[in-house]
Amino acid sequence: MTVIEARNVGLTFATNDGPVHALKDVNLSIGKGEFVSFIGPSGCGKTTFLRAIAALEHPTEGTLTVNGMSADAARQARAYGYVFQAAGLYPWRTIAGNVQLPLEIMGFSKAEQAERVERVLALVDLEGFGKKFPWQLSGGMQQRASIARALAFDADILLMDEPFGALDEIVRDRLNEELLALWARTGKTIGFVTHSIPEAVYLSTKIVVMSPRPGRITDVIDSPLPRERPLEIRDTPEFIAIAHRVREGLRAGHGYEV
Description:
Number of domains: 2
Strand content: 25-35%
Order of helices and strands: EEEHEEHEHHHEHEHEEH
Number of strands: 10
Low-confidence stretches: none
Helix content: 25-40%
CATH architecture of the largest domain: 3-Layer(aba) Sandwich
Mean pLDDT: 92
């Protein structure tokens, strides 16, 4: 079942210095339950495309559908949760209070808010931290709280814009493992932006390689790796071969005119 469908999508920003062509001729289908990473150099449009899926930006060419409807309609139907690069937690709210915020806005009852907050904190291994404030948690734990907030209203799609980019490698590895376990437990469709080739290969069922501006897709790689992936899989020939193909795709992308 196709969840996200892009057909000849282009997106041009109007600026005082003239038009900026962020995306051009993007064609992509994402199936239900897939983990899809978007990788490319800075300014290649990967975050812009993720934001277009979330109806935070609007294509100027082509069509983009989410769950068979427009991105705007999918947003109104609360089809997705969105995790930004920074955790974006309110410092005056507890962790539980931050996770609870979208549920308050959506009008869930107090009892259901409490049940959902408890459940999603457990999903991201933050049981017992609900009464803490963001400044009392590490950067990795804050980002897990941000993921919990995006999961709180149980959308089928989770969009993640380079959520681990600011973390050190040890914490990042741990959160990569936890994210795969979370994906396995929930069966959600995940769109994930990253600059890291190993991260993209480790996490994904499909890797979308993008060129510099205007952002185009240079390669779409369906991963042959098993869904259960210990970190040690990164040393296998299969993993290294996929990483090499991603790297070649990134290099080929620089051949496009901008």
